[in-house]
Design brief:
With 319 residues, this protein is mainly α. It has 13 helices and 2 strands; from the N terminus they run H-H-H-H-H-E-E-H-H-H-H-H-H-H-H. Helix 1 runs antiparallel to helix 4.
C-alpha cells in the first residue's frame, strides 16, 4: 500500500469524527483533494505540479493540527497526524524526482550503491571518470531536433564504454549509464553483467527519452539543446533546468527556477535567445563552471576531478 493510499485512508477515517461541512471537515477534504491531485501529477511525471500539490496538502494538514485542541478531538487529531507522517516523506520523494537523477551518479553513494538525494548545500557530483575525458577538437555539438543523434554521439564519446572504477560513485557504468539508471529504465534490478552487455542502442534510447524528450529539452530553442542535453545527463534534468532558469533570469527574462520546463521557461528561453544569441551559451557555461567550483569548495577532495569537469563545460563555449 502506498503512502498516498495510507494517508488518504487516515484522512477518510478522520472525516467521520468531525461535523460534516464544519471547518475541520472542509480542511480535511481539501487536503485529500490536494493529495489526490499530487498523486495524479506524479503518475503523469509532472513532478513540478506534484511537488506543489503535496506541499499544499502538508500545509493544510499542519493548519488543522495548529487549529484544533487535541483534548477536544483526540481521535481526529490522531488520524490527521498519522496522515502527516505518511505525506511528509512524499515531499522529499517528489523533490528528488523533480531534481532528476543524472545518468552518471548521485552524491552520497554508499558502498551498497544506494544513493541519498542531494540538497541545495550538496550539489550533484559527476563521477570519477569525468576528469579523464578528452576534449573534442570539433567544437560544440550539432544543434537542433534533427541533430539529436549527433548530440547522443557526442555524449557517448564523452562517457566512453564499460567502466567499473572502485572510486566511481555511479558504480559500474556503460556508455555513461549507471547500474541504477539501467534498472530504472528496465523496471527491475540489473546485474553488473547486464550493464556490461547493454547495447549502445539501448543507451541511446535511455538518453533520448529520459534526458531529452521527457524533460522537454527538445522544446527549448535549438541553440540551447546540445548543452542542456549534456547537462541533463551530467547533473540530472531538474538541476540542469534550474541552472538554465537562473541564467534566463540574469538576462532579464524572468521565470520560476523550479526545475521544470513549461510554457514560461520556453517563452523566456526563446526571448533570451533572440536577444543575446550565443552570449546565452557563454553565460550557461559560466554558470555550469560555477556549479562545479561550488562542489570543490564544499569538498576539496573533489578538486582532482575539476579539470575534466571544466573541459566538459568549456567544450560548449562559443568563440
Amino acid at each position: 500500500m502506498s503512502n498516498y493510499t495510507e494517508a488518504r485512508d487516515q484522512l477518510t477515517a478522520a472525516l467521520r469524527l468531525v461535523t460534516p461541512d464544519g471547518p475541520e471537515w472542509v480542511k480535511t477534504k481539501a487536503a485529500i483533494a490536494a493529495l489526490d491531485q499530487a498523486e495524479v501529477a506524479k503518475l503523469e511525471a509532472d513532478f513540478v505540479n506534484a511537488s506543489r500539490r503535496i506541499d499544499d496538502a502538508v500545509a493544510k494538514l499542519r493548519a488543522i493540527v495548529a487549529g484544533v485542541t487535541p483534548n477536544v478531538a483526540s481521535n481526529f487529531m490522531n488520524h490527521v497526524n498519522g496522515a502527516l507522517v505518511k505525506v511528509t516523506p512524499l515531499v522529499e520523494n517528489v523533490q528528488a524526482l523533480l531534481s532528476g537523477e543524472p545518468a552518471t551518479a548521485l552524491p552520497g553513494m554508499a558502498e551498497t550503491n544506494q544513493p541519498t538525494f542531494p540538497t541545495t548545500s550538496q550539489p550533484i557530483v559527476p563521477p570519477v571518470r569525468e576528469f579523464s575525458r578528452a576534449r573534442a577538437d570539433s567544437g560544440a555539438p550539432v544543434s537542433g531536433r534533427n541533430g539529436v543523434n549527433q548530440m547522443i554521439d557526442d555524449i557517448l564519446r564523452r562517457e566512453g564504454g564499460f567502466v567499473n572504477h572502485v572510486n566511481d560513485r555511479g558504480g559500474p557504468t556503460n556508455f555513461g549509464v549507471t547500474q541504477r539508471t539501467l534498472a530504472a529504465w528496465r523496471g527491475h534490478d540489473v546485474s553488473v553483467d547486464d550493464v556490461r552487455n547493454m547495447t549502445a542502442d539501448e543507451a541511446r534510447n535511455i538518453y533520448r527519452t529520459a534526458y531529452y524528450t521527457r524533460p522537454k529539452i527538445d522544446q527549448i530553442p535549438e541553440l540551447l539543446q546540445p548543452i542542456m542535453f549534456d547537462m541533463s545527463i551530467n547533473h540530472g534534468p531538474g538541476t540542469a533546468i534550474k541552472l538554465l532558469q537562473q541564467v534566463l533570469n540574469d538576462t532579464g527574462n524572468t521565470c520560476s527556477a523550479d526545475g521544470g520546463i513549461g510554457d514560461e521557461t520556453i517563452a523566456c528561453a526563446q526571448a533570451a535567445t533572440q536577444e543575446v544569441g550565443d552570449l546565452l551559451i557563454q553565460k550557461l557555461v559560466k554558470r555550469r563552471i560555477a556549479f562545479y567550483n561550488a562542489i570543490v569548495l564544499g569538498d576539496d577532495s573533489q578538486r582532482v576531478f575539476l579539470r575534466g569537469w571544466l573541459n566538459r563545460a568549456n567544450e560548449f563555449n562559443v568563440a
